[in-house]
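Why this split exists: single-chain examples teach little about how molecules sit against one another. For that reason, every record in the complexes split bundles all components of an assembly together and asks for one structure covering all of them. Below is a record exactly as it appears in the raw files.
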Amino acid sequence: MRTTVGIIGGGPSGLLLARLLHRAGVDCVVLESRQRAYVERRQRAGILEQSTVDALREAGAAERLDAEGLVHDGIELRWGGGRSHRIDFPSLASGRRVWVYAQTEVVKDLIALRLADGAPLHFGAEVTSVEGVDTDRPVVTYVQEGRTRTLTCDYVVGCDGFHGVTRAAVPGAARTTYERTYPYSWLGILADVPPSCDELVYAHSSRGFALHSMRSPDVSRLYLQVPNGTDPASWSGEQIWDELDFRLARDGRQLERGPITAKSVLPMRSSVTEPMRFGRLFLAGDAAHIVPPTGAKGLNLAAADVVVLARALIRQRTAGSTDLLDAYSDTCLRRVWRAEHFSWFMTTTLHTDPEQSGFDTRLQISQLERIASSPHAAAELASNYAGLPIP
Ligand code: APR
Ligand code: PHB
């Protein structure tokens, strides 16, 4: 098999890239190791920033998002057992806003469109190697239904996530990975109960971080900071609700409780691999960088990468110029590092490091008070949260 662009991974990066290329008449093949049902059920993040929504609209993939997504114009910060402050996006982030619409819904929409177009998207196709990325005919080898096959490409794009294989196709001497792990994880639940708040609430408390998010008017998504290595089964439903009540407390009001339908623990890590390109291999999304979820940036960074890359590949095909492809890594990394900093800032300002001293806690509270009292500090948070424009 041959194609112009071989896309490895059918998560949001691979699927959005495929959609953008297909609309511009550039042919591509998507190889996804998992089955469709698995990819569509995976629980991931749920906040789309303005530029991600713009990109999905431009790709003709926002019909359901526009009908069902919840537009949010702010978030609330809580701390110190009773202090709270709302961050207003329209006034602080130049009119940019965010949408609550689950990543898994974005993935369902993009899969349905690609299949309706009759464009190649192979499930159960596990890529085992990428060779010749420093030649002009790289070859992807994959296994599907027990048979080994190859795909010869002009360009290969690694959209295979943090645990994928493409990053390793760049020789070790040609790449550097910068990483940080955090001494805590998130216990996340989905619950069949209307959210107890209109907007997301990020809470700093003496017992650690908590987040109240949502998926729809009837489904809540909530998170608690827990120690690394926590077994989700070690928390009963009642313990989870009690702890959420303590950490999210305001005016003695309790959260609406409901049946918990999913429960899992997520580790927190920051990682960036540079450069994001080697020869004819380009890395995009989680394959190149991950962030801790506190800033809700993972999916949005992935979308920005593929918008930049699609533009560059289309230009190469239509005008014969590789200037945008040559600039791809630098263009993306500038924005990636800004989001890495923001995600680290949100994480370290709101969580309690088990080793932290009273001094460290007072610095966190001082930072939160500064955001509450200074429009400049609030605007810095708002513009990063609602997302910077894609260059
Ligand atoms: N061959 C084919 N597909 C693979 C392989 C492989 N060897 N390895 C991994 N994949 C697939 C995975 O099954 C997954 O569907 O690549 C896809 C990668 O998707 P994501 O992990 O969702 O990564 P990405 O598309 O970059 O999206 C980033 O996902 O993890 C979240 O928080 C993150 O929201 C962010 C978003
Ligand atoms: C989510 O709804 O899953 C979510 C929202 C905001 C975050 C992280 C996760 O910062």
